[in-house]
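Incident log, entry 3
Record: N-acetyllactosaminide beta-1,3-N-acetylglucosaminyltransferase-like Protein (355 residues)
Problem: checksum mismatch between cached and fresh output.
Input:
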Amino acid sequence: MEPQITQRGQFFVLSNYVPASSQFKCHESITVTTQGDFTFIENLLPLVERWQGPVSVALYAPGTDFDRTVASIRYLRECTNHIIEKFVTFHIFFETEHTPETVSWPEGAFDCAQNPPFRESSAQTYKAENDLVYPINVGRNVAREMATTHFVLALDIELFPNPGFIPKFLDMIARDEPPLDRPYPRVFPLPVFEIKSGEKIPENKSQLREMLDKNLAIYFHKDICYSCHKIPKFDQWKRLNESQNFGVFRVVKRIHEHKHWEPFYVGTNAEPLYDERLSWEGRRNKMTNGFILCVLDYDLMVLDNAFLVHRPGIKEKSAKNERRSKLVKETNKLIEQRILPEMKVLYGFKDGCIV
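Fresh output:
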């Protein structure tokens, strides 16, 4: 948990730049690992309020965005709920070519009467002004590698788990009942949902099921990428009554009807990392990770009473963006011509496994 400065390819990383006041040994909890920039940082408060455990967050802060990032961290720690200071450890990263003028922590008291620094328009950021892409997988890997617990849940910053997750999951692991005794490597995917704007995020599966029945909720990216987050045997999962404990609903492989699945899952730091050449704008940034899970014959153990909900608002297909279309095309070429051949050398190949 000691702060340190390291170089990661073309990036400088300030690990443990602001450590949480509470620390956890490997068996004591589960760490949510996430990433973003200061314009998304307000999502941390509802995330931590539901999680009630350690959170490791990597924030992208090139150039002058660094100052606004630090101000946003101070606002959350000093002007909102004390659980931010208690549970959240902040890491910061940026390209070496976009190093800020200073990286020191400001002295003096913070003025909580000012408007939250993260409410500024994303168009006003250094990132936007310099036409930079968001290196999402650098953030994912930095946040995950800095976790101090054995189990980690790598999330995007706008995804919120149902409350009470940590003790229920650790209890399930301690019981070690079938099918947990299978010999294959494993991760534990969580079904992900979107809800309509203005709706309250459900606290439990019963509330979620009611919202699904009223068409107030759908599974994640249903209207954008139908097969990317399709829940195995979804109708059965939905009908299964909620219980006080967690269990494994179904074990599947990332193959056949699930060959495009890019799940958010509980795993460990033994699992493959995310390819840092891929950006948010270029899309498909988690697909290579899924390919490796397939080739290595991972069990995807879907949990019965656990789920994630995206920040309210149903995602719709966005209008065509010429810049992003160009980046998507470049990403597809990079994956097919370079990354996929490299992964086949490193991990092997198995029929049915695709990116």
